[in-house]
Amino acid sequence: MTAVELLPVHQFAHEDHLLRRGLRNYWGYNSIGYFAPHAGYSASGTAGQQVGEFKRMVRALHEAGIEVVLDVVYNHTAEAGELGPTLSLKGVDNRGYYRLRPGEARRYADYTGCGNTLHVVQPQVLRLITDSLRYWVTEMGVDGFRFDLAAALARSMHDVDMLSPFLAVIAQDPVLRRVKLIAEPWDVGNGGYQVGAFPPLWTEWNDRYRDAVRDFWRGALPDLRDLGYRVSGSSDLYAWGGRRPYASVNFVTAHDGFTLRDLVSYERKHNEANGEGNRDGTDDNRAWNCGAEGETDDPEVNALRRRQIRNLLTTLLLSTGVPMLVAGDEMGRTQGGNNNAYCQDNEIGWLDWSLPDQPGPGGLLALTSRLLALRGAHPVLRRRAFFSGRPQTADGLRDLAWFTTRGAEMTEQDWYAPSSTLALFLSGRDIPGRDARGAQVTDDSFLTILHAAGRPTAFRLPGPPWAEEYELVVDTSLEEQSTAPGTVYRGGERMTVPARSVLLLRVRD
């Protein structure tokens, strides 16, 4: 792990409707003080001690080699809509800080779904935001930001504009242009969905990756085209303007939605504890409960769920791009089917650190560790340039090739045909870039097989020039994941791919 992204740490307020129901804002997406760490998170006092605590936390993480990224909410404030409280900006200059509806001085233009939208085009608002960002970098030591509903910040008059004042100022600022900038590239207004559209300095949450991977493993993808783009870096979205594969922040789950365990245990949201009649939270979960809704004692259902978790996690960590994990997913954390636990400051929302010691999920942590170690050791699994698909060597070996179960390279017709199996060959012979000594980067080559069908399938391994032999490194059909399987296969040999599994094979020279 190289970075931790914290949910909002700016001082925030609890919404009145939550307090009336005996709940609290647990996630903090209701900021009111952009220069102050949230006092409620302090262990030693709130008369400035929270500032010192935050700085010490950042130093400790840096000493462990971990960067700190803040999730920041500059698109709206805790003052909500026209019926919300007056806490700061409303009383200072309501018209100067918020977007108002044309001709309606009392009503707000709401691109955020939270009642108000900061008017970032106004110079005083732009200065407030950029001063806050610089403060958290220069004084508090953070390494980057994830911008909640970033499309709302990029709106000029009404439309999203990639030449907007906010994006222009960030690109020119000598401090901010050097830190990590991650966009949630949408808001709730018209034209707000902007995945793939942010300029080259930015990386983006790639929800198209999430949707394609979820649909593949639940058997809902009509063909393999979308999945092929997503696991190879989403070049259709990001291969422009000098952007690189790391512009794509790949994720299967986020704080907002099902946990990984719930994704394979529930098909419907269960948000009754939020007190809104189960109306809140998305209905588009793209989930499969493996045969039973919620927790069950059926050993076959539970075994299938554990396998599906391993499949989703392995797909994520072997895909090109930047993988993002939700804390607890590597340990099988559940929220009981709640896909909007923002107000659950209790066992529903908390992370149970004893999970690895309990029966069942412990092997998931071992698999996660093995996959992250593989990713860290092999540059071919975390490429910094997009694949070309062109021959890289004299024998015609390409940096990326796709294969059918027959061991033949995929044709255009194969991409349009319904299929439950996708195999990609990653060549490590000639990776773009140089090492610390200036030498060309080379690595092992790998074959990854994703098989989502409920029955095993025969697969013919590509022979020379692709490989003489393969060694099986990861097999998600196995419950025990602390060590590699180690089975060796000859190139051209037919092997059996277990039902609903991911196989990673390393080429042996």
Describe the protein:
Helix 7 crosses helix 8 and helix 11 packs parallel to helix 12. 39% of the residues are buried. The mean pLDDT is 94. Strands 1-4-7-8-9-10-11 form a seven-stranded parallel sheet. The chain has a six-stranded antiparallel sheet with strand order 12-13-16-21-18-19, with helices on one face. The chain has a two-stranded antiparallel ribbon with strand order 2-3. The protein is 24% helix and 18% strand. The protein has 509 residues and is an alpha/beta fold.
Q: How many individual helices?
A: 13
Quaternary organisation: single chain
* Mean residue pLDDT: 94
Biggest sheet, in brief?
A: 7 strands, parallel
Give a short synopsis of this structure.
By secondary structure, the protein is α/β, with parallel strands linked by helices. It has helices spanning 16-20, 49-63, 89-97, 123-138, 150-153, 165-172, 207-217, 225-231, 235-238, 260-263, 299-318, 362-377, 412-416; strands at residues 3-6, 10-12, 31-37, 67-72, 100-101, 104-108, 144-147, 180-183, 203-206, 248-250, 322-323, 400-403, 421-426, 431-434, 440-441, 446-451, 457-460, 469-475, 488-490, 494-497, 501-508.
